[in-house]
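Hi support team,

I'm filing this because I wasn't sure whether my run with pyridoxal-5'-phosphate finished correctly. The job status page said complete, but I'd like someone to confirm that the output block is well-formed before I use it downstream. Pasting the exact inputs I used:
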Amino acid sequence: MAADLLRDLPDIPVQPVEDPVLAAAGISLSVLRLDLVHPVISGNKWFKLKYNLARARETGRNCLLTFGGSWSNHLHALAFAGAEFGFRTTGIVRGELPDPLNACLQDARNAGMHLSGISRHDYGRRHDPALIADLEDQHGPFHLIPEGGANIEGVRGCSEIPVLYPQADFDLVCLACGTGTTLAGMATTSKVPLMGFQVLKGQGYLAGTVRGMIRTHGLTERSPWSVDDTFHFGGYARVSPQLMHFLTEFQARHGIPLEPVYSAKLLYGIFALAKKRDIFPQNSRILAIHGGGLQGLRGYF
Ligand SMILES: *Cc1c(COP(=O)(O)O)cnc(C)c1O
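And here is everything the job wrote out:
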């Protein structure tokens, strides 16, 4: 039974992207298509859930509880993972539940997730043991998975991402960052330098968060890593006409679907830095991690 807990991965393509902008800058780019890991439990969320499900099984908890915004990829993936592997799931949603539910939350409910909206104020207390204790009184015992899958099990799962591509073929690996869990996990195993593209606004905060995650869990960094905090487009889930134009053009030209919250900001950032010429060394071979999350597109089109 436990054998099916997110162990079997299909082959994940490393897809080259031929583009005149990159060619002019002397850069080669490929995309690791983690969006193809699973039809629903997609991208880095698969890796973050893997050891969380195992942990819940080990500790005999058959309910998983998590937190997320109303378009959370994490909440969406967790609802499906719970249904597939026999866990009850509860999603604590920031703010009132929209009525009718949006497509993301409707999917989660259809997968059997119990949804509960809490005030933004209470949502801000999501790490507070008193709030967790209240939730335990209301919902019974559960295995808690923090927002975005940002715990040690999540970090551990993400540390397995670098084995999916030939590391010797790349000089730099770029990825989009929300909580920074994926970057933290990858930094503990990667042989190639990493560059995270922060999708939330806030100068310089994420590097501290990632460093904190690595240290708190007693892990060691194996590769140099950095965070670019300039391609958030005004903040989490904010977009601009240029970003949406880039997304549409990129999909049409390269046949790789993007969504605006993470992957479009990542690729936009890579192209913008390539144009600047002085950031990536000449002849850099760059790999971009596609983090999945395409369900979120439905909030934009
Ligand atoms: C959740 C998510 C991320 C961010 O991952 P973190 O580990 O929270 O930094 C990036 N891309 C996509 C598509 C995601 O769904």
